[in-house]
């Protein structure tokens, strides 16, 4: 496993959170590729924590599906095959549709979505794929969080981490500025007709990701 620059973990029950955050950053940045082993003993040595704390950190990453625990193989950074991608997108569709239905019925405009769209446009123009992914996530999370449902938002964040992991290693083909333009149109349509807009948007992105995989 590549060595990550460790933060000094604070003592107490949040130490496992600090370790999990550092490893999560390595996974979502692409420094830790899919299939990379995540070993308790190495995390313990790198971060100066107990094996129990390292095990707890890995359990949290496994719960987020950023890591996978397999018998006789230990814990590794997750890899999503095509079937898993489709299932993930179907679940995202259900959560995002319900959140946006609530938003529509309340007649509110999601706070933060306009600034998130601006950030996506800026990131895309810079050519920085890591920043683009972060901005893309902000757009969708702004829509979901506007529903005011902590449970929906919590579950959606977990799925978004999986999507972030996948897209870190698969870059769909978009013309310059097309991603931001697509999401501006999506937000407008989703606030009006979430049932149709979310399904159409995620089916389109699924096809783009699968095409990107085949090109890779």
UniProtKB/TrEMBL annotation:
Transcription among keywords: yes
InterPro entries noted in UniProt: GntR_C, TF_FadR/GntR_C, Tscrpt_reg_HTH_GntR, WH-like_DNA-bd_sf, WH_DNA-bd_sf
Transmembrane segments: none
Gene3D superfamilies named in the record: GntR ligand-binding domain-like, Winged helix-like DNA-binding domain superfamily/Winged helix DNA-binding domain
Family matches, as SMART domains: FCD, HTH_GNTR
Residue span(s) of domain HTH gntR-type: 13-80
Pfam family, one: FCD
Keyword field contains Transcription regulation: yes
PROSITE patterns to which the protein is assigned, alphabetical: HTH_GNTR
Record's protein name: GntR family transcriptional regulator
Organism per entry: Microbacterium phycohabitans
